Amino acid sequence: MLSRLNLLTRHLPRPFTPSRATVPAYSTPSLAPRTGPFAMTSAVKPIHTAACLIIGDEVLGGKTIDTNSPYLAKFCFSLGIQLKRVEVIPDDEEDIIEAVRRMSARYDFVVTSGGIGPTHDDITYSSIAKAFNLKLQLHEPAFERMKRLSKPHPMQPNFDWNTPSPGLTAKLRMVELPYDPNVPAESQAVFVADDLWVPIAVVNGNVHILPGVPRLFERLLSNLKPSLIPRLADPEGKGTFRMMFSTPLPESAVAPYLTELAARVEPRGIKVGSYPRWGKKRNTVTLVGVDKALMESLVSEVEENVQGKLVTKEEELDPPSDTEHVYSQ
């Protein structure tokens, strides 16, 4: 038995573990800076903007439909974070490196989805490590949680956590994370659910690496929320508000007024939108922003100028037979 354990020890990469008691994510006031072209000056910054990087050949090939970026969009909207960009890229090292460097430099909160499984094409961890000149190291707490919480697969009846094997090597790929020796270990991998061994790896202070499996992506992101709220522009987490107005007028008729309205309110953080509803007799005008009081003060004005009504659902005022007619825009 001792010889088997020695073999396993040699088989595993050097682990990184917290050097002090684990603290909540982002609780440290600042993280030690690194040198180099992608050095981080301060990891703990207010979150105003976000970006999403979907990684996977299967999405680009049409095999899988991406539901994670829409979920992230709603998540960010509910917190008042401006989701500025969503990109889908292949499982290609150069593409991942270029995209994650660019997004990390431009946006406050970056979320990646996909490419952290056990197979040869799951290269997200290694590619993001290269993007920031880091190495991969075994994350011992994640490995221990994996052993404790994972159920043996019925098609691997002889699998043994203490015996080096191709199966063990594949599993280790999922707990070998980018590691920065200049940053507290506990801030580089966050566990947000007691019954999940999967960590959210955090790189360069703002890149959050999540699995592509929708149920895991959604649960981990949702459970990360308490750690994000203190860093929001609005720490109370009131989020962004959307007001919808249903109008019978074509877009061309409301365009002059909406252009003037946008010029007035967009400097105050309110965006004005107009959306045709093809095949319907009513179109939609929207106001989106964080200043609910200001938006409410505009309701009567907007209703009058678009000859419409404030609604909670786009189809709220549709007539029952509104299924065939298409208005010219």
TrEMBL record:
Chain positions covered by the region annotation Disordered: 310-329
Gene3D superfamilies in the cross-refs: MoaB/Mog-like domain
SMART domains per record: MoCF_biosynth
GO molecular function, one term: FAD diphosphatase activity
Top-level taxon of origin: Eukaryota
CDD domains tied to this protein: cinA
Annotated MoaB/Mog domain residues: 51-231
Pfam families associated with the record: FLAD1_M, MoCF_biosynth
Swiss-Prot/TrEMBL GO biological process terms: flavin-containing compound metabolic process
Protein name according to UniProt: MoaB/Mog domain-containing protein
